[in-house]
Task: structure prediction
Amino acid sequence: MMRFGRSAPCARMLFGTITRNHRAQGALLLLLLLFGGVLHAQAIEPMPFANHAQELRFQRLTAQLRCPMCQNETLADSNAPIARDLRNQIFQLMQHGQSDAQIKHFLVDRYSDFVLYDPPVKPGTWLLWFGPLLILLAGGSVVFMVVRKRHRDGIAAGISTDSGPTDNGDDW
Amino acid sequence: MSRLLPLFGFLLLVTLFGFGIWWNTRHDQTAIPSPLINKPAPAFVLPELYDPAVKVSKTDLLGKPYLLNVFASWCVECGVEHPVLQVEGPTLGVQLVGYNYKDAPADAKRWLAEHGNPYHVLLADQSGDTAINFGVYGAPESFLIDARGVIRYKHIGPLTPGVIRRELKPAIAALSKEAP
Result:
């Protein structure tokens, strides 16, 4: 409900620029829509990286982090003002020689585990990590019990699978 | 009994589904629980909005609890929150500190002149760098900070009369109880 109220232009920023541009007529609009992704990528300002390796590291790191405002976007993708600020912050921390782990720690200290796409294993996330295994075990044991019960019922009724010739030569 | 088993399974799924819907309408899905609650507020030094030569630091505000309200002139929901702060602010019993977030000072001053100024102190964070240390990711946000400078409560999104009655006032009451 408050998503729209809390002011942060996510994807809306792109559409805002389209609607504001009154000269954008049919073909141009189509072009914009077609290359919207390109436009979006360019909205993220270039940064003075020391070298290409650092740039790659920056891209990899920001793609692992979630924008707190537009929660379905990574910090690398998001156009929200806070994502831009956090990218700048990460860039600065990198220039100060901080490791990826230190930078993640910096962000988690301020924005909690929400900023991590990969949730850490800790008591609060045990259900998240091991819940599927529990469900698998529960389902497996139900199947096991049903199969064993049917097998036993089958024996009790005298229709055991290996009693008497069942091959009447019809197959194959 | 075993014939009813699929029905029970179905009902279980319906219950889970219903709970999901109920839960998602009940809480603000965009609100991230702050890891800073009950931790010391980050140190800051920020210029005063009306007199940028005056720098306000965290230590300047120690000694009395205060409500740090993050707002901006570009923030739509702040316009919704503002009248509530005007009315409820004086009844809170704590200082209201305005935290002007990523705003041009001229815009902020115009906005306050237009809508009224409920704040006792006004800080200007034009770059938004200090706000990152507070875990701010939009506006409005409000922090209740106690006399020792510890963040005791945070609200993300506009303060409404309901939120003030249900959450903020009890949190302030808890502070005044423990004060010597």
Observations:
- The radius of gyration of chain A is 28 Å.
- The CA atoms of residues 29 and 70 of chain A lie 25 Å apart.
- The helical segments of chain A are 12-20, 26-34, 36-43, 52-63, 81-95, 100-111, 126-156.
